[in-house]
Amino acid sequence: MYLWRLGFWTVNLFGRWTQSFGAQHSVGLPHGAEAPGVIFFGQPKFSYGWRTMAALFIWPPFSCRNAATMRHFEANRSTQLGIKSPKGRDYPSGKRPKSAFASATTAPTAGLPDDATGNQGVDKQLQGDYKTAEEIRSALYQKLEGVNRGIFGVPSAKKLEIEGLVELLESQNPTPQPTDNLLDKVDGCWKLVYSTITILGAKRTKLGLRDFITLGDFMQIIDVAKEKAVNVIEFNVRAFKLLTGQLTIEASYKIVSKTRVDIKLENSSITPDQLMSIFQKNYDLLLAIFNPEGWLEITYVDDTLRIGRDDKGNIFILERTEQARV
Question: Per the record, where are the segments of Low complexity compositional bias (predicted)?
């Protein structure tokens, strides 16, 4: 009530002062011009323009009057997100994230850093859905059905689901120091079931992998005693009946930490010669896709499943299998 009286008194005082000022001084408007938007009940246009401005100053528009409500909403949203201060001073990383006030119902994106150190976070929802590593493995294999090892691309939503399960499985790694157990856990033959390496667009066309040539199994043979790894990618040529062949990539590795090895490309070849003649023109492109050189982090390994991440950001999921013919 007192605020309303103060506003009414200020409006009238301001209006009378502007009427007096306007009568004594030129207002600088062109002849016949009117102050815009200030006609109210036949009152003087110029004076009521100032009255309107004064009234807006004392009693701001709806959006401003509800600023407190918006601050309350922001504070509540911050509480839902686990943020102590809406001003951005008490975030775990010390900085206000760009998406701090995104919808609290949005599921965490797999693969995003969990904290300022860049550590990978695990989807809390997934943690609640799966209690054991066996349950996670079963869910992961279900997601991998029909993706053809991911080589020709995977829809973004499904890719996020796969990577979320991978991270969850990695968090339950039964072999936290895998390079100390290479002979027991890694030595032998493995088959690729999924990777984020893709052959898309013009690359797929150049390599004839749309209709002319199909991809067979991707095999990997690890010889711990020799510190060697051999990757074998099988091909089938539809235009030539019974023509099958393979790209063989030989590499050496060196242990550099409890979880990481450095890999060096040693040799590569395509057999038989008929298949080599098909790939001859684009051999460098083919080798660039499957070249393993760099480092590899073993993030999960048990008796039958292995997961790794390389220096290019790729993920590899392999399952143990019988010895392949090289």
Answer: 99-110
- Tally the domains of the chain: 2
pLDDT tens digits, 186-239: 999 999 999 999 999 999 999 999 988 999 999 999 999 999 999 999 999 987
Exposure on the CB side of residue 162, measured as CA atoms within 13 A: 24
- Residues 52 and 157 occupy one common structural domain: no
**Chain center to CA of 212:** 34
Phi (first) and psi of residue 301, to 5 degrees: -155, 130
Per-residue pLDDT reduced to its tens digit, 60-83: 544 444 444 444 444 444 444 443
Domain contains 166: yes
Residues 6+ apart with CB under 8 A from 77: 101, 104
Same structural domain for residues 257 and 164? yes
Does one domain contain both 157 and 299? yes
For the chain, list residues with pLDDT below 70: 1-128, 324-326
- Where are the strands (E) in 106-256, listed by range? 188-195, 213-223, 228-237, 243-255
CA separation for the pair 241, 256 (Å, rounded): 46
CATH number at 159 reads 2.40.128.280
Query: Would you say residue 240 lies in a domain?
Result: yes
Strand partners, 191: 219, 319
CA distances from 278 to 75, 218, 250, 294 (A): 64, 19, 21, 28
pTM over 0.85: no
Domain range for 224 is 138-320
For residues 179 and 40, give the distance between their C-alpha atoms in angstroms, rounded to a whole number. Answer: 84
Q: What does the alpha-carbon distance between residue 94 and residue 90 come to, in Å, rounded to a whole number?
A: 6
Domain end (from 19, 35, 59): 59
Same domain, 41 and 184: no
CA atoms within 13 A on the CB side of 322: 1
